[in-house]
């Protein structure tokens, strides 16, 4: 039922919990990309939890902490600046309720209730009925939870994790919420979806009183459809606020069982409510349409103010900060807002907020060259800049004073925003001078400019219109492009008109004409033309090269048109076998990737204007693609929910993985470290770390059947301060054999030399001559003046005490024990030699690999240190065996030369070494003859070939 882990038995956790990625990752994982983290997630439909903390001696007031739900994880925010403190780990299932108790955060996830301390799980309870838990509340030393069907309330002891009791509700009472009235010991109110309340004693498990829906609502006839959706504790004892799905609000005295006040919100049902606690009797309520209402309780519930469109969707939570005129609200629109009241009667003003997209983004693009910002466009009709480095730097580009217009017209702000963005282009070259972003919108005949520097919509609107005659057809803008220099913005329409404007002045500079459809275009792709009406060729993509020489336009009839950028002349038309949906140009390499309707990607070189690669294998329509910064990879996403990576030089598929939901857009970081994706069912942007940036990855061709299922990155991801330490865990576990590595020896009958330069062996052979030449002419002289700190003798003349110096030198002499230890220390050279000899190695591979890494001087010292007969015998055996293995021939010859010069007299004087010397001499003679034969054969072969040529 529950396990209790004592947090005192482990050291305190860090700011963010670090888990062992090697244990956490599954056996099957993408080869190139590792899940890193999610961006842009603020909150969801689960109400947040507010906690205030006051510290003794603090002068800046109480600290505010907010805990919001992010799906399977939770985030803690600092209320002062709305900064993200840390993110908790992922729960097994989506979180359904949260609570805070001191330093602990409690969540319900499926049948589990988990307790966290600073992001570390320390306790877990399990529902014995194996059903999901939907609502939890910490009640002293008890934790109360409601089951998903609303038939039971479970009571756990938070200290030992034991399930104490289970309360079974009567049929017809579906519990959905628990509320604890102030000063009520061991008693809670349980609200139901039928509109009634029950007061229970949790210690004795007895029902004290039932508040019927008839007494809570105005008329019993409305009780059938009015469920209790919100409850709030008031500063007055025995008084609670109750909100219903019908929009009715009751201020109720539960001791007297009497309704004190009734208010009604006309705009949707009540989703949240809260009483002001700084001395002003004000009740704040929120509706399912996103409106906030403020009620004056001194005037019998008179409506003070209503803030329409406070959130773009239902408000999920509403809390007053204790003792402050600040109201905090959160909604389904992925935002948390703080409202400040300058006076008790003034309307609230927005103080600070943290928000993200409230509809899934469908178009994302990295902005700039530093890889720190991502432009995201969403179905919520907004354009946002999401920061990869810090969440607080993310913002929405302003579309003007929409709040005032929406308030005066009493309409939602979303209805005044621009239509959904369908195409996006930018150039950061002149971002400090004028507008640098150009966007096309759905079913609009104009393109709009934006300025990243000022974080708002730009000054210009580019109209794309062909004939200005009356009755001429005006098409919608389908594609936009900003030139690499940032001076020109180009827009193309569905009628085939391409117009180029100056981004600074907004003046029309020239118009490009695609002309009639080429005759070799397939008839099924040809646009319809009847009578006097000209055929309209829909432009689907625009791109300009890095030097503003060529403008490329793709059409829906399957053509790629190349224009001269300066003269607007059509230079060449490339006809493809299928309709072109979109194009993407990598300006540095001149490669143009086209998405075609036949589920094939075609890569075109804009210099030769030919198709150089065709990439297929897709099982669904291709939605988006992106090049890697070095133009070696092409990453695509398609309707089959698979993200594929192609190697462009070889045209092979080198990586693919399937996500839980379809990725609508992808973008590669300019710094080559991350891949960003957006998905059809999430409002966040997800980052995937490029493994090849941090470790060696083998690029082998794979097939579609090798696809692996990968979960999306979590909000916690890899903490920034631990990212560098965890890079080693990004390496792929398998290490396939590298087919391009040359083996140590091609054939056993061949003689192999080392790959070291010839100068190394020449230096070792002539080391004595080099040392004699480099010997200093005079030894270093001692300074004439003695240091000031030498002891002196008493007297008129200055005399130094040398006896004291000799005594100090004697004290510093090594003892016999240190001398014995120093003599017994063996070098690595001798250790590897003896280990290879004792193990009976067949080629002394480790010994010679180490010897080849030493400098000539170090090899000379090591050979001179071989002073015992055993050491000499082992080295002779090593040379003999290495010669027989046909490896490192010139290294063995050099070692043999130097060794015999050093120890030749010792070898000749000891008879026990004669057999080893004779064996080495025989092997040397045999191998030398083999080498001469091989050289002669090779020279003869080369001579024959040369004569034949």
List the helices and strands and how they pair.
Layout: E1 2-4, H1 21-24, E2 33-39, E3 49-53, E4 63-69, E5 74-78, E6 83-87, E7 95-101, E8 104-109, E9 112-117, E10 120-126, E11 133-139, E12 142-147, E13 152-157, E14 163-168, E15 175-179, E16 187-192, E17 197-201, E18 206-211, H2 213-216, E19 228-233, E20 239-244, E21 248-253, E22 258-264, E23 270-275, E24 282-287, E25 292-296, E26 302-307, E27 315-320, E28 326-331, E29 335-340, E30 349-355, E31 361-367, E32 373-378, E33 383-387, E34 395-396, H3 402-409, E35 421-426, E36 437-441, E37 446-451, E38 456-463, E39 477-482, E40 488-493, E41 497-502, E42 508-513, E43 539-544, E44 550-555, E45 559-564, E46 570-575, E47 580-586, E48 591-596, E49 601-605, E50 610-615, E51 622-627, E52 633-638, E53 642-647, E54 652-659, E55 663-668, E56 674-679, E57 685-690, E58 708-710, H4 758-765, H5 767-773, E59 792-793, E60 799-800, H6 802-811, H7 816-824, H8 828-839, H9 845-853, H10 856-864, H11 869-884, H12 889-909, H13 914-948
Parallel strand pairs: 54-58
Antiparallel strand pairs: 1-10, 2-57, 3-4, 4-5, 5-6, 7-8, 8-9, 9-10, 11-12, 12-13, 13-14, 15-16, 16-17, 17-18, 19-20, 20-21, 21-22, 23-24, 24-25, 25-26, 27-28, 28-29, 29-30, 31-32, 32-33, 33-34, 35-36, 36-37, 37-38, 39-40, 40-41, 41-42, 43-44, 44-45, 45-46, 47-48, 48-49, 49-50, 51-52, 52-53, ...
């Amino acid at each position: 039922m529950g396990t209790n882990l004592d947090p005192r038995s482990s050291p305190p956790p860090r700011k963010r919990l670090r888990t062992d990625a090697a244990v956490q990752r599954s056996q099957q994982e993408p080869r190139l990309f590792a899940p890193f983290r999610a961006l842009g997630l603020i909150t969801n439909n689960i109400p947040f939890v507010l906690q205030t903390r006051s510290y003794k001696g603090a002068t800046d007031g109480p600290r505010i902490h907010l805990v919001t739900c992010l799906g399977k994880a939770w985030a803690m925010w600092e209320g002062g600046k709305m900064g993200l403190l840390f993110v908790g780990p992922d729960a097994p299932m989506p979180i359904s309720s949260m609570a805070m108790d001191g330093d602990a955060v409690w969540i319900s996830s499926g049948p589990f209730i988990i307790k966290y301390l600073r992001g570390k799980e320390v306790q877990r309870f399990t529902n014995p009925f194996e059903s999901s838990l939907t609502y939890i509340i910490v009640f002293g030393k008890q934790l109360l939870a409601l089951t998903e069907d609303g038939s039971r309330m479970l009571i756990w002891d938070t200290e030992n994790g034991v399930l104490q009791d289970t309360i079974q509700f009567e049929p017809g009472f579906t519990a959905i919420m628990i509320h604890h009235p102030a000063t009520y010991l061991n008693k809670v109110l349980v609200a139901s979806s039928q509109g009634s309340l029950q007061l229970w004693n949790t210690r004795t498990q007895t029902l004290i009183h039932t508040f019927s829906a008839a007494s809570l609502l105005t008329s019993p006839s409305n009780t059938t459809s009015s469920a209790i959706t919100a409850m709030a504790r008031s500063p007055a004892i025995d008084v609670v606020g109750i909100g219903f799905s019908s929009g009715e609000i009751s201020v109720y005295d539960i001791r007297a069982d009497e309704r004190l006040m009734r208010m009604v919100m006309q705009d949707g049902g009540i989703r949240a409510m809260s009483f002001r606690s700084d001395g002003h009797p004000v009740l704040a309520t929120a509706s399912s349409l996103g409106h906030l209402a403020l009620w004056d309780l001194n005037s019998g519930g008179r409506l003070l103010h209503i803030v329409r469109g406070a959130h773009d969707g239902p408000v999920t939570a509403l809390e007053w900060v204790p003792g402050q005129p600040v109201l905090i609200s959160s909604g389904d629109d992925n935002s948390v807002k703080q409202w400040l009241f300058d006076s008790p009667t003034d309307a609230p003003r927005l103080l600070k907020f943290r928000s993200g997209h409230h509809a899934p983004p469908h178009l994302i693009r990295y902005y700039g060259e530093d890889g720190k910002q991502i432009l995201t466009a969403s179905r919520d009709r907004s354009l946002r800049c999401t920061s990869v480095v810090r969440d607080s730097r993310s913002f929405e580009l302003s579309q003007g004073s929409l709040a005032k217009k929406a308030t005066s017209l009493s309409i939602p702000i979303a209805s005044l925003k621009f239509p959904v963005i369908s195409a996006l282009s930018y150039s950061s070259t002149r971002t400090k001078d004028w507008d640098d972003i150009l966007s096309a919108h759905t079913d609009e005949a104009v393109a709009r400019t934006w300025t990243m520097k000022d974080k708002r919509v730009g000054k210009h609107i580019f109209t794309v219109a062909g004939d200005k005659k009356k009755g001429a057809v005006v098409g919608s803008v389908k594609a936009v492009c900003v030139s690499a220099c940032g001076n020109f913005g180009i827009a193309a329409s569905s009628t085939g008109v391409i117009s180029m404007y100056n981004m600074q002045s907004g003046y029309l500079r020239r118009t490009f004409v695609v002309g009639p459809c080429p005759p070799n275009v397939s008839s099924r792709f040809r646009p319809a033309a009847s009578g006097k009406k000209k055929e309209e060729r829909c432009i689907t993509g625009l791109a300009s090269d890095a030097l503003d020489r060529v403008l490329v336009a793709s059409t829906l009839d399957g053509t790629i048109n190349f224009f001269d950028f300066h003269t607007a002349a059509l230079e060449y038309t490339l006809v493809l076998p299928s309709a072109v949906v979109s194009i993407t140009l990598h300006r540095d390499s001149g490669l143009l990737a086209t998405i075609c309707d036949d589920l094939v990607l075609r890569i075109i070189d804009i210099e030769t204007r030919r198709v150089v690669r065709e990439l297929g294998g897709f099982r669904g329509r291709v939605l988006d693609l992106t090049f890697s910064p070095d133009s070696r990879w092409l990453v695509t996403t398609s309707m089959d929910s698979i993200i594929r990576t192609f190697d462009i030089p070889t045209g092979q598929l080198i990586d693919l993985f399937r996500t839980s939901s379809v990725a609508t857009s992808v973008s590669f970081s300019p710094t080559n470290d991350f891949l960003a994706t957006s998905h059809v069912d999430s409002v966040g942007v997800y980052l995937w770390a490029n493994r090849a940036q941090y470790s060696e990855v083998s690029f082998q061709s794979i097939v579609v059947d090798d696809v692996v299922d990968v979960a999306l990155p979590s909000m916690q991801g890899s903490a920034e301060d631990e990212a560098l330490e965890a890079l080693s865990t990004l390496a792929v576990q398998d290490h396939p054999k590298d087919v391009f590595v040359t083996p140590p020896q091609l054939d056993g009958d061949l003689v192999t030399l080392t790959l070291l330069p010839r100068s190394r062996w020449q230096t070792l052979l002539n080391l004595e001559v080099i040392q004699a030449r480099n010997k200093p002419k005079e030894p270093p002289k001692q300074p004439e003046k003695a240091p000031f700190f030498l002891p002196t003798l008493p007297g008129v003349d200055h005399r130094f005490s040398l006896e004291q110096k000799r005594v100090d030198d004697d004290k510093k002499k090594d003892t016999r024990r240190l001398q014995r230890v120093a003599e017994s220390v063996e070098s690595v050279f001798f250790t590897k030699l003896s280990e290879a000899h004792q193990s009976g190695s067949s080629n002394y591979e480790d010994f010679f690999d180490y010897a080849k890494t030493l400098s000539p001087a170090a090899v000379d010292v090591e050979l001179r240190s071989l002073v015992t007969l055993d050491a000499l015998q082992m080295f002779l055996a090593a040379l003999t065996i290495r010669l027989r293995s046909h490896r490192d021939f010139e290294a063995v010859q050099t070692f043999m030369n130097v060794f015999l010069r050093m120890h030749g007299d010792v070898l000749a004087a000891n008879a026990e070494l004669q057999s080893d010397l004779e064996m080495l001499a025989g092997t040397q003679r045999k191998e030398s003859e083999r080498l001469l034969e091989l050289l002669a054969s090779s020279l003869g072969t080369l001579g024959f070939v040369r004569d034949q040529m």
